[in-house]
TrEMBL record:
Gene3D superfamilies: High mobility group box domain. One of its GO terms (molecular function) is DNA binding. This is HMG box domain-containing protein. Residues 79-148, 180-246 bind DNA. Keywords: DNA-binding, Nucleus. Residues 79-148, 180-246 form the HMG box domain. Residues 1-67, 163-182 are annotated as: Disordered. GO terms for cellular component: nucleus. Residues 26-67, 163-175 have a biased composition (Basic residues). It comes from the Eukaryota.
Length: 246
């Protein structure tokens, strides 16, 4: 019995006891190979900036709306031109006759009749209509000067844009009051003298301009030089006065 007990002790001493539940395994893990790549730094978590307990929102930048062109009405348009002497006579004749035209054909016939009656008038009979037209001209100049002086440039640009689209010329201001005009050219000097001659006194309008042009083309260069030299001297004096005033 003693031999059996000693043999059982020897066998139990050589055996390993099983690991308990709370004990950790002491077996060594195989070592990892060292990586040649550099270790990437860990990105820090984005922290929301809190101001007074409220997360800061992203600022939304809104696009600016394009500035609309001002709406142009009829009242913003420049003043219309003034009637001439013949137009005033034509209106006066219609009032005298008392038969206003109701169709295009009647209006054209009335204008032709007024033209024939206008040519039949003498210079003394035409003079009141010329004076009346001059009064309308002065009023028109004043209104136009006030319009360009007080008008908004944006409205003027809008008007010119529409006029160019329709094929009309741009609106431009005339020479300011008090500014000396340029001296007339050599041809217009000759035309002014031609109108005072016996040949040009009885001609008016296009007929006078046509006759003066034919006479100018028939002149020699020496005869034209007289008017050209007068124009050059007046132009030089005008430029000197302009520079001194500025």
């Amino acid at each position: 019995m003693e031999k059996k007990a000693s043999s059982t002790k020897a066998t139990t001493a050589g055996r390993k006891r099983p690991a308990t539940k709370g004990a950790k395994a002491t077996a060594k893990k195989p070592a990892k190979k060292a990586s040649t790549k550099a270790a990437k730094p860990k990105a820090k978590p984005k922290s929301k900036r809190v101001v007074r307990g409220v997360a800061k929102k992203k600022r939304v930048v809104r696009k600016k709306r394009p500035v609309k062109a001002p709406r142009v009405t009829l009242a913003m348009a420049p003043p219309r031109g003034y009637p001439g002497a013949f137009i005033l006579f034509h209106k006066h004749r219609i009032l005298q006759v008392g038969a206003p035209s109701t169709s295009v054909d009647q209006a054209q016939q009335s204008a032709r009749d007024s033209g024939a009656a206008w040519h039949a008038l003498s210079e003394a009979e035409k003079e009141p209509f010329f004076k009346q037209a001059e009064v309308f001209k002065e009023e028109y100049k004043k209104k136009r000067a006030e319009y360009f002086e007080n008008n908004d440039p944006k409205i003027l640009r809008t008007l010119n844009k529409k006029r160019v689209a329709k094929g009309h010329k741009k609106l431009r201001n005339h020479r300011p009051a008090g500014q000396e005009p340029k001296p007339i050219s050599s041809y217009f000097r000759f035309m002014a003298e031609f109108r005072e001659t016996t040949e040009g006194t009885h001609l008016t309008g296009a007929a006078a301009a046509r006759a003066a042009g034919e006479r100018w083309r028939a002149m020699s260069e020496e005869e034209k030089d007289v008017y050209k030299q007068a124009w050059l001297t007046d132009k030089a004096e005008w430029e000197k006065r302009r520079q001194s005033s500025s």
